[in-house]
Each structure stands twice: as structure tokens, then as C-alpha cells.
Amino acid sequence: MDFLQITIVLVLVVILAIPMGRYIASAFSLESTKLDRVFGGIEKSIYKISGIQETDMKWQQYAKALLLSNLVMFGIGYIIVRFQHLLPGNPSDIGAMEPLLSFNTIASFLTNTNLQHYSGESGLSYFSQMMVIIFLMFTTPATGLALCIAFFRGITGQRSIGNFYVDLVRALTRILIPLSIIVALFLVGQGVPQTLEPTVTAHTVEGIVQKIARGPVAALESIKHLGTNGGGIFGVNSAHPFENPTPLSNVIEIISMFLIPASLPFAFGRMSKNRKQGIILFTAMGIIFLGFLSLAYFSEANGNPALKGIGLSQENGSMEGKEVRFGLAQSALFTTVTTAATTGSVNNMHDTLTPLGGLVPLGQMMLNCVFGGDGVGSINILMYAILAVFLAGLMVGRTPEFLGRKIEAKEMKLIAITILIHPLIILVPSAIALATNMGTAAISNPGFHGLSQVVYEFTSSAANNGSGFEGLGDNTLFWNISTGIVMLFGRYFSMIAMIAVAGSMLAKKPVPETLGTFKTDNSTFMVVLLATVLIVGALTFFPVLALGPVAEWLTIR
């Protein structure tokens, strides 16, 4: 029954992803399409009001526009949460968020990470939830989608990489807003609240006064998953019955956060005019995903020997930290999908996963190319694809080519920077945290699991995921500053490097295919790509995994 549940959900994702990929390619086409007749009027009005010129940009202009718009959003968001106690839309009289927590919160939501060092129901007013959190939940995945499409255009040799503002608007009007309305209505039908009424005061049978938080939950939940955002109005996230009340709502949320990331390889195949190319990328990511999903499910199904040793039944697997209404299968699937798609939403507590079960979210975020969020995973798998082609070219003594364009030193330097930045901003801050009282004071488990808590926090921040091993006491000066900086570095350094690669590839003249050309749309290349991803990942991260979840697994057996 568990396997049937998982299979049905994954089959639905694939069935929806193929036409969605075709739609995304059409939605961002540089040529006129039928979609222009549907959305063109609204978009042109937005361009006119905003003063946007529909002219092609060079990669430097594209990067500048992206950074400038994000800087403005950071400033406005920070001001609102700092002064929310003076602004309307605060029926529960929630006070101002303190300065460093405000920095961390805005950095988190601006970077599509949505790491929360606060509890949503008590930390933010309705006005802040809507004007900052939900607003950024739309604009940050739209930014990621825009960059991803620009990258696709660059390496597939389109007319140009496009215009950032036009791509941003199209991501909102043609994809995120329509889909979020549909998903929100589904969730309301399942019982998710959507209201601006204040917190309810309830009196229990025992005479206890209870405060029940609510709010515009359905609106936030829909874009939270479609935009691979994570976060939530309630501290326990999608484990809360107001955010995720039924098994059906759980399936809707899984499909929502997996849909766009799973569609992008197919969109790339259409844009490159080689659908096999997209299928190969999707299959490579799918194989890694299924491997991690199997590890998560069987680890949790086998239970925790340490709990069994103290007399707790593990016949039905490890249900610690999981909701009975979802069960083992949907919990393991949700865990794997949310970190594969770098969403960060959780329907069970990752801190209570078995050691190897906890390795799954950690491993996927460390690789950061197993589908990824709205854009990031597809960009990263293509980065590894270019690296794989370069290595294969070196082995046979031939100048490497990808999609008819030569890969040279400039591109490889930028890709090397991107590959190195990710482990650097995870491992260096983790070492500092573990070597100082500022970091270790937050650890709730002093053993191997404590190391995993620290590494997970920085991995989640670097991968723009936002989930956490929540036993970590992270709302402190050290954690707010360190994770805030890691989130900003993890988002923008790689963005700038990848748009530079796109610009460089676009400027190259295509070279004709010959008998010696290494084809990248067959199973041989898929094997080379998988080997490249796994070897680079293992060389970079296996030592710290051995000291954390692997060592913990060995000690409890």
C-alpha cells in the first residue's frame, strides 16, 4: 500500500510535468505566441506603469537588474517587519521584529530560502505576512525562474538572454499567480483557513483559555509550495492541521512543490530543439531522487533500534515526529521531495528522522541539483553537464562542446567557482560554529546528531531550502547573522556566475557536429553525468556526513 501511494503521486507529477514543460517554454518564448493574446494586455499595462522597456539585455544588464530589484525588495521588507507594530493589519497586536532577526528573516525570504528563526503565528502581523512574506514568495521564485530561462537561452543559442523585468513579470502572470489561485482553492476545500480575522480565544471543557491562531493560510500555502519557498504561518509548518489537514492536501502540496522543478528539464529540451536532452537530464535527476527516496523510506520503515531498546514498538517503523494522518510513506515522500525541490516545507520533524533518514535531506541539499527549486536545480544539473563534457573532452584529447558551442577556460572557471562556493559556505561556518560556544550553545543533542544539527542549518541556508533540524536553538545573534550571510552568498554568487556563463556561451559561434562530437542526449552521457555529480558530491561532503549521520547510525545499532 505504501509503494502504491508513492507511485501514484510520482506518476501524477510526471504526467503533469511534461505538458507543463512545454507551457513554460512557450510562456518565456522570445517570439510571439498564442499566450501573448491571453496575457499580453495585462503585461503591457504593467510595463507601462513600471516604465519597463521590452528590449533585450546583455548578461551584465540582466544581472544588474536582478540585483537592484532584489536590493529594493530587501529594504522595503526590512522596514515593514521592523515597524509592523505601527502598521495596519495587526489585529493580534504583534510587536516589532528585532533588528537581527529582521535581517535574517528578510534575507531568508528574499533568497527563496524561507528559513524561519521565528514562529509565524506569533512573530508577524497579517500585514507583514501578506506584504512581505507572501509578496517575496511570489517574486523570489519568479526571479529564479527568470534566471533559469535566461541561462537556458544562453546555452541553447537563442536570440538573446532576454529582459529580466519581462521574464519576472511573465513568471508571475503566466505561471505563479494562476497556479497559486487554483491550488489555494483546492486547499480551502480541504479545510485550510483563509481569513483576516484575529486569533480566536477558545475555552476548553477543562476551563482553560486557549489562543488559536489563523490567518491568510491558504494563500500562503499555495505559493509556498509552487514557489518552492517553504516557511509557514505556523511554527510546525505543514505538519499543522491548518496548513495541511488531510492526506489529499498533503498530495496537493507534494505535487505543487515538485511540478515546476520537474517541468524545467522538459522546457530545456524544447528550447534546445532536442527533447532527448531534456529527458536525459530529467532521468539523471530522477535516478538520484529515487535512490534518496528509497533510503528515506526503508530507513524509517526499519525503525530506530535505540527506541526499540527502551521498549517502544517499531513494528510500523519510526513514527517519532510524524503525523498519523500522513503515515510513513507520505512522510518519507514529503521529506525527499521538499529537499529535492529545495522547498523547505515539512510535514514531519526532520530532527527526529532516523540517522540515515536524516542523511537524505542533507545529501540532496548538498548536491543541490536533484530537481532543485524553481530554476536552481536545472541550472546546477546543466552546470554539472558542462563539467562532465569538459572532463570527457580532456580524457579523449578533444576540445569539449556542449550543444554546439565550445567550452573553454572562462566557462570552466565560473563553474569551478560555483561548485566551490557551495561547500565553502557550508563547511567553514559549520567548523566555526562547532569550534565556538556561540555555535555549540544552540545544540540540543551533544552527540553525533548535534554535529548534524549544525551542518544541516548551514546546508539548508546555502541550498536556499529553509528546513531545519529544529532541535537547534537558532534565534541568536550568531545564528541570525551567520545563516543570513550564508543565504545571501548561496543565492547571489551562483546567480551571477551562471548568468555570466550564459552570456559567454551565447556569444560563441556554433561549431558543426562531427563524428568525434561527444553526444549529450544518450544513456552514455547520462552515466557520465551521474558519475560526475556523485563523485564531486562524495569528495566534498562525505567526510562530514561520516562524522554526523553515518556515525550516529553505527552507534545506535
Structure description:
This protein has 557 residues and is mainly alpha-helical. The chain has one domain (2-555). It is 66% helix and 2% strand. The chain has 19 helices and four strands. The chain has helices at residues 2-27, 34-50, 59-82, 99-110, 120-123, 126-156, 164-189, 217-226, 247-271, 275-301, 305-309, 327-340, 355-367, 376-396, 409-435, 437-440, 448-462, 477-507, 523-555, and strands spanning 200-203, 209-212, 401-402, 405-406. Strands 1-2 form a two-stranded antiparallel ribbon. Strands 3-4 form a two-stranded antiparallel ribbon. Helix 10 (275-301) runs parallel beside helix 19. The radius of gyration is 23 Å and the shape is globular. The model has no long low-confidence stretch (mean pLDDT 92).
Our estimate of the beta-strand percent is under 5%
Taken in chain order, the helices and strands follow as: HHHHHHHEEHHHHHHHEEHHHHH
Mean pLDDT figure? 92
Number of helices: 19
Please, what is the oligomeric state? single chain
As a percent range, the share of helical residues equals: 55-70%
Q: How many strand elements? A: 4
